[in-house]
Design brief:
mainly alpha; globular; 8 helices; 241 residues
Length: 241
């Protein structure tokens, strides 16, 4: 009886895990809709933005949509399609980092910053965030055969992108760039939910989550550390010129 029941238990836990990460992808989607929808509602965003803003938005939406689709495919057990789409995700992730980093410089150059950010803080914050996303996402892709690490590191990479959505909900309320600490708290709450799931389903917290925690904390810490560094100030001056 025991030898027959164990595999069934393993399959049950695996499916619960797949369901959890699919549901979290829907939470990310809801946060993105709420954050960007709120900015449209208050007039901070509009369809009258320059073309490069729309390209950036489509890239972000496309990657988030792909993440939701990939989570759904794993949830339903279609791993073959999931792997094929992984190649598309890898290409988009490179484009997202390269184009996103350039779009940040354009935002500064054209003075399109939200009013609660100084240009140097904005540059340090967003370029660091791009680096955090790239590190977690590309590590997840490199470890795609170790599915326990792959799904958790990709979860962490998406959390770094979700800082943009949560920022649109939080920062207009506090109107202070130090509000990114509140964003960090919200993001760590997501990681805490994943850790709690691991504890209940597996009896331990997977080490990949600690890498996510470290990366997110480093994002905020490095932002404050680098914002007033002479090289960052010089870059901002060159973009503005």
């Amino acid at each position: 009886m025991a030898t027959i029941a164990a595999p069934a238990l393993d399959q049950s836990v695996q499916q619960r895990e797949r369901t959890f990460y699919f549901r979290m992808s829907l939470v990310f989607l809801a946060a993105a809709v709420a954050g960007f929808g709120f900015f449209f509602a208050i007039g901070a965003s509009s369809f009258a933005s320059p073309w490069w803003v729309h390209v950036h938005a489509l890239t972000m939406v496309g990657f988030l949509g792909l993440y939701v689709a990939q989570s759904w495919l794993v949830h339903r057990g279609d791993l073959a399609t999931h792997r094929r789409l992984g190649v598309v995700g890898a290409v988009i992730s490179v484009w997202l980092v390269v184009y996103g980093s350039w779009a940040i410089t354009q935002t500064i150059a054209l003075g399109r910053l939200p009013p609660f950010f100084t240009p140097n803080f904005f540059l340090a914050m967003d370029w660091t965030n791009m680096a955090i996303f790239a590190g977690l996402a590309w590590a997840a892709m490199a470890m795609r055969r170790r599915t326990d690490w792959h799904k958790r590191l990709m979860f962490g990479a998406m959390l770094s992108l979700m800082s943009v959505a949560w920022g649109r909900l939080i920062l207009p309320q506090v109107f202070d760039q130090r509000g990114i600490v509140l964003i960090l708290v919200v993001l760590l709450g997501h990681v805490g939910a994943a850790m709690l799931f691991d504890r209940r389903a597996h009896g331990r917290i997977h080490p990949a989550h600690w890498w996510t925690v470290g990366a997110l904390v480093a994002w905020v810490g490095l932002t404050f550390l680098l914002a007033d560094a002479p090289p960052v100030l010089a870059l901002v001056e060159s973009f503005s010129a």
